[in-house]
Structures are given as structure tokens and as C-alpha cells.
Amino acid sequence: MSPAAVEVMELTVRFGDFTAVDRLSFAVERGEIFGFLGANGAGKTTAIRTLCGLLRPTHGSARVAGLGYEDGGRALKGRVGYMSQRFTLYDDLTVDENMSFAAGLRKLSPEVLARRTEELFEFIGLTAPRNTLVRHLAGGIKQELALAAAILHDPEILFLDEPTSGVSPVARIRFWKLIRNLTEKGKTVIVTTHYMDEAEQCGRIALMRSGRLIALDSPAELKERTFPEPLLELDAQGRDPDDFLNTLRRNPGVIDVQPYGSRHHVTVRSSSEEAVLSSVPAGMSLRRIPPSLEDVFLRLVEGKDR
Amino acid sequence: MNRTLNAFIKKELAQTLRDPRMRVILFVLPMVQMTLFGFAISTEIKRLKLAVFHDPGDRAARQLTERFYSADWFLRVEPEGDDPLRLVRSGRADAALVIPAEGLTRSLARREATVQLILDASNATKARVAESYVSKILATARRGPEPPGPFQLDVRVLYNPTMESSVFLVPGVMSMILCLVTIILTSMSMSKEKERGTFEMIISAPLENWEILLGKTVPFVLIGMLDTVLILLAGTLLFDVPVRGELWKLLLAAFVFVVTTVTIGILISTISKNQQQSMLGSFLFVFPATLMSGIMFPVENMPKTIIVVAYLNPLKYFVTLLRNILLKGGDPWVLWSNIGVLLLMAVATTALSFRRFHQTLN
Amino acid sequence: MISFKFSRARSIALKEIRHILRDPFTVALALGLPFILVIFFGYAIDFDMKDIRLTCVDFDQSRASRQLTEIFSESGYFKIGFPERPDLFLQELDQEKTAGVLIVKPDFGKTLSSPGQTAKVQLLLDGADNSKTSAILSYLPGIQRAAAARLTGLKRQEPVKLRTRFLFNPELNSRWFVVPGLATVLIGLISILLTALTVAREWENGSMELLLSTPVRPLEIIVGKILPYVALGLGGVLFVYLAARIGFRVPFHGSHALFIAACLMFIMAGLSQGLLISVVTRQQQLAMQLSMISGLLPSLLLSGFIFPIESMPVFFHYFTAILPPRWFMVIARGIFLKGAGIGELIGPLAALLVMDIVLMTAATKRFKKDLEP
Fold first, then answer.
1. CB pairs under 8 A between A and B
2. Prediction pTM value
């Protein structure tokens, strides 16, 4: 058995003239939570759909659980679970009807279906009656149900495309607990997200921009490598920071100034840190902070767009 | 049975039949329509508005006039003033008959009677029929019975001797309704999945193409057959349409027809990306198909250049089958040749669907 | 309605116009489809039968029997065939190979030449196909007259001669009444589909709820949605009009202004019906089923397009009054062929107006119900 869950070599997917995924290469280990991070249209969804066999690569190769697309991807599809960013359950069917249809698609026997739904409903903590129409369920519960349908056949590799979009913060936390539980059982999870707090929970993150992979590492490593220099946060505390920001931008010791909500994040050379910190006008605060993934993202993805 | 197929059947039936509005559309409206059209439409043209202009003292003309109104063909319109043209032009009468000024009594005596008929020909068929009614009545206007001529055609109408309209229309309307219901239902079901994203769940499972296509076909064939039985019941019980052939022939023909229309629906849905396109596709099929079912105008009369379109219409074959089975007992040659053509169509559309269907989103 | 603001309706209309222009589908549906279908069927539909297949079983094989079959085929209406197995002639009818069987008995020629006797020829017709058989029945008197004259040399004098004058369509060109009728059916149907589908789609993807959450009033939405499609529908009418006038040389005797006004009312009725359907169903599949069921078959079968209303039972004289195409059929044929003016058409016009108001009000009311908590 191949040691890697997913192995991608020079994967390219084109739609007409548009290159959605451009020469992507990486490998995902078994039991890993592997995250795709990137802006909308960066190619995350296309990459995931290709790996699940829903799209065919234009060039390059991908092996998922050691399998390719030779048989129309059917062997591959049998080994993976996929949860689309669109809600793919039928909202005009009941919970049970949806599960039994999902089981039928995988040719599971009624006994397996009964056992797995028991397990999974306990796992996701579903309390709604099973003859409820799915359209009457809350957003978070719907997503958990979609997850349950995607792992009904107990796949070894699970692809989740923005599983928590449009879900309440509480439900998101619950959902990630479920994902961690799955990897503890030895499953591999590949997930796309644009929530930074979710990305922090991945073992490794692949940062994508315009179809290309621009960074791939653990969250801590990514921060370290992207921000070798100190990162300062300016809080103008209601005052107008424009004059000071202009001074900073002219300062050769300052590498970058990025707006960050109502605040600004300033990257400086280590040698100039002291001088910059002491130049802050009265009434504003400037202090050193550890870089967050969002800083990394802004620097690597959006920074290059300027 | 294949578990996937089983799951598709359960799922489609649950989705389609749960909505009470859909149940009404699928099972109640077709019967209502069957009844409405069966009672309403008559191939015989009746109750044309006719005014007869003649001198009140003309006895022969008065007798003739009474003959016109004794059948159901003409409704009496009182001649107003003395301008028959204006009466017809204004639409108050469809026809005006003008008796010569000297009076019919006198001109008949001279054996030189000529009457003028003014017809509203804005509906050409109606006008032609009106003329034939008038000339039929005039032919009997001779004084005293004449011996039959040396040559006579002895005409007998078989199978439907009274030329009952419903016997002719019910099979046609039946097939129109069936075609309409099954095509729309099927063609929109797959594009609905594409539009809503549920298609992704289906193609993310390790399925063969035929499993998906069959899974989308079988449930709608079942629904179509249920509809067939209901419409057949309404058609034969409410109207005196005889069922001279065996029931199995009827059900077999209906089954093959439903399979054909469902596969056409599937083909439409594999070609279209969303429900709107499916709708356009269904409309482009259903409208010509119903118009060319043979109950509105004689299909064999179409110009040679486009008659091939009429032969591609599954309705044509099903209407032939229905009429033959209901009225003539189902001749084996007619039964198998028409069923054969329908099957051929189903196979061809299925083959096309297979070529068009991909389990990818590319 | 006091709170109706035209500015809000206009902004909805403008948004709708931008949608339509970006959507080649809708434009094709409204402009192209009626045009193509009117041309196709205007060309295809022909009520005059030609070459109807008749099987002749000739047991006589005399000069007279051959003359008889010639008379049938020379009329142009019939094409005479002879069966391979004369004893199985009924099978020809059962197998749909022929529309009728002509049986000439062995003594036909002899009877014909013996004075005082009547030579009868039996004609069996297929009652399973009413339309063909009625056509044949209407051709037979002419055939009988011609045959009697030619076979016996005697000319029978009709007691009363008929001189017929066909008004409005002297040559009885069936296209002149088929094309305006077809245009009515198609324009009505497409008006329903235009709004039924587009608005149901907005319900499905949620953009209608967004619109309902704004302070826009239901009537403003309805008016804003309908107006752009009215323009589109009129565009479709223009194409159909050109097809009728240029393609089929259908005369136009009436007033163009009146015709446009009537079209406007008719299109509005269809659009309102479509809107009502989509407000009620909120689902494209249901909307499509309902539009086709309420639009297609009634407008083909109950509008007077082919089957005249007056031939229907009395109940349907009233029942068909709820169908907009029934009224527009009268208007279109009246204006095109008869040059009918507002005086003659006031009834149908009023009926259309009433239907516009009823359907629009119904759609608005349904919308209102959705707005209430």
C-alpha cells in the first residue's frame, strides 16, 4: 500500500482558455488534516473536485489512495468521501430518505446502512426526528448531516469543500471537533476553508493563488517563514493615523504596512524595531504581536496582487 | 435488484409524489383534461349561424328554410334589412342564403332555380363544410321522390358507424397528455439536480453511467404507467370508447410509448445545463409532437420536404396503436410494427443520451 | 393603489431588462421560437386531402369497373391500390394500410348496362379516423355525380343550383386562418412560459425573497416584472406578423393600432398567468408542468383554433370564456381577414381586459400573502 493518501504531480485543469489549477504538486500523508487556503477562484474547489474524480485533469497526474482515473475514477470514488460546498442533500426528502439514497449510491446493504446511521447520528449528535424534511433543519445540522452522508461508506480519505460556510460559529466549532475525531480514527481529511481559525487547526496548509500552489507547510512554519522579521500592530485608538502611516512608509526600516480591520500591521527590520516602536505618536499604541495566519495570507496572497 | 437502482426509484418517487401540488398535476389534472376535451371537442361542425333571405309569401322557400334549421347544423339568424353581405361581414351570421327575387316556388317550376350562398370564409374549413351542408339540403329540395339513378355508391363506415367524435379524439388526447406529463417531468428532473448541486453527490459515488441513467428512467416510467391507467380509465369509462383488443396489448403499447417519451426526456436533460434549457427542449419537442398527433390536421398531407418530421413523432405511432387496439382489436402486424418503431426510437435516444452523459463537471 | 410608486416599479423593470439582455435564452424564446414555429406549421398544415389511399377489390374486371377506379384517382383526392389477396380486403383496414375499401361486385358492368336497375358499389370506410373519413364523405357526392355521368352518359339535373360566394378568403386558402390562429397559440403560450419560469427561478435561488425584504410593494414588483416582457412579447409579435404577411401572404385588412392594442392586452394576460403560476408554485418544475397544462392543450383544443367553439356543447361556450386565446383568436382572425374594427371586437377586447385585471390582481394578492408574517 502506498504510504501517501494523495499524491499529486504537476496537476493542471483547464476550462477552455482558463487555467483553474496550474501545475499543482504535493502529497498528503495518511491521518493528516490537510487544508487548502486561498481566495475565491484560487482553484481550491477545482483541485478537490479533480481529486474526487468529478473532474478530469488536463495534464499531470493524481493518485488518491494509490488509484487514478483509469476506470472512470470508479475505484477511486469508492475509497473517498466528498462533501461539496453546495448543499448536496435533497431538502425535499427526509433525513432517513437522504441517508438511504446515499447508501444506495454506494450499494450498502440495509444492515450496514442501519448500523452506520446509528453510529453517525450518535457521532454528529443528531437529535431531530429522522422523518423530518431536511429543508426544515438548521444550517449547521444540515452540514453535519451532509458530512454523515459523505462518510456513510466509511471512506479512508475525506474531501470537504468549505464545509462550514454559512454556519454559526458554535456549529463550526462542533464541526471541527468531528473532523479531528475522524483523523484520530486514522482517516485522512482534505479541507478547503477561508476561515483562518479553521486553517490553524490543519496539520498542513496549501496556500493557493490563481491556480498555483504558493506555499505549503504547517501553520507555525508558515508564520515563521513568512515573517522572519518582527510584526507590529498599530492601534490609532480613534485618532487619524494617516500622517504616521506615511512616515512609516517612508522609513527604510519598515518593510510593509497592511491595514488590518481598524488597525494596521507593520513589518519592520529587526534592527529598526526599537526605533519604530518609540516613534509612535501619543495616544496611539504600537506593540509587537505574533503573526497570525491571516497576516501570512495577506502577505502571500493578497500582497502579491498589488 | 441492483441497490442503486432501488435507491433511485425510492428517492424519485418520494420527491415527486410528496408534493401534493405535483400529485394533482400528475394524476388529477390529466383526468380532468381528458374529460374536458373529450366532452368539448367535436370533429363535426355544428350550429353555424345562417340567415335565409326570401320573400315571406314564397311557400317553397319557407319549407326549404325549415329544413335548414331542423338539423343541428344551422342556427337561425333573422335576416335584417335586405343586405345579406352586411350581415355576414358584421359577423352576426356565418352564412346567408339568398333566394331569387321571383321566388323559389316559381323558379323551381321553371327548373332553373339558382340560390346564392354568402359565406364567411375566414375559417376556410368551416366555410367548406357549410357549403357542403347547404348543397346536401338543397339536393333534397326536389318536389316528390325521384327514382335512384343507375349508379350509386353504398357507403358504410366501419368500427365507428355513427362517427362518434369522442371515439376519434380520446386516443389522441390521451397520448398528448401522457407525452406532456412524462417529458416535462423527466427532462427537468436531471437538470434540477445539476442546478441544485445534488448531481455532485450522485457522480461522486462509484457508479456506472447506465446505473444513473436507468435510475433516472425507471421511476418516471412507473409514474407514467400509473398515469396511463388513470387516463385510460377516464377515457373508456366516461366516453363510449370501445376496448376491442386485449388489455395486454393496450398496456404493452402504453408501456413502450412511456419508455420512449421518458428516454426523450432524459436525452433533453443530458443536453441541457439547467432547468430553463430543459424547458426549452421539452417545449420544442412537445409542441410540434402534439400539433402533429393527427387530431388537428391530417399529417399525411404535410409537404414532402418536411413530412419526415411527422414520421419522427412518437405520438403518431402511439395514436395509431391506440386506435387500432381500441377499435379494431389490435392487428398483430400493426401492433408489432408500431411498437418496433417506438422501441427503435427509445434505443436511439438512449444511445444518444449515453454519448452525451458524462459523470464529470468538465 | 395609493402607495404605488412608478419609480420603484421602473427600477425593477430596469433590472429585469438587464437580466433579459444578458440571457440569450429568453430573447431566443420570445423572438425566435414563435417565428420559426409559425413558419414551420404554417407550411405544414394543409387541410386539403390529397392521395388518400383506397383499396379496390374488383370482382368484375370490366371496362366499367376500370372506368370507376379511374374516376376516383382522377379526382386527385384518392390513390387506388389493388390488394394482393382480394379475399383479405378487411385486413387492409385492420392493418391501417388503407382508408377505405371499394368493392365492385362481379355483375357491376352488366347491371349498369341493363336499364331500370341500379348498379351499387360498396365503399367501406375506416371510422377510426374521423377526420380523414369526414373528408372522404364530403368528396363522395362529387365523385358519385361524375361517375354517374360518365358511366351512364346521363346528366342528372340538380333541382336547385347553388352559387357560393366566399367572403374574406375567396380561394379558401386554409393558411389564411391557420397562421393567425397558430400565432395566437404560440404568443399566448410563450408569454406564460416567459414569466412562469424566470420568476419561479428567482424563488428557487432565493433572489425573490431578497426583493420581498425591501419596501417594494407587490403591485410594483408585478408591474416591474411584466413590463419588460411585454416589450419582448411585442417583438415576438412583430416577427410573427412579418412571417404571416410576407411568408404566407395573409391579408391584413384591419387597423394596426387596434391590433397592437389587442396584442398588448393578450400578452399581458399570458404574462400575468405565468406570474400567478410562479407565485403559486415557486418551483420551476411545477411551474413548467402547470404552464404547459394550462397553456398548451387548452389553447390548441379549446380556443377555436381548429375546433370551432360553436360546435362544442353549450357548457363550453361559457367555459372557454376563461381562456385568453379564445378571445384573441377571434380578434386576430377578425382584424387580419375581415378588417374588423373596435365596434365588432368590443366583446373580445373587454374580455381580455377583464382577464388582465383578474390575473394581475390574483398574482398581487398572492404576493401580498407572502409578505404578511
1. 87
2. 0.89
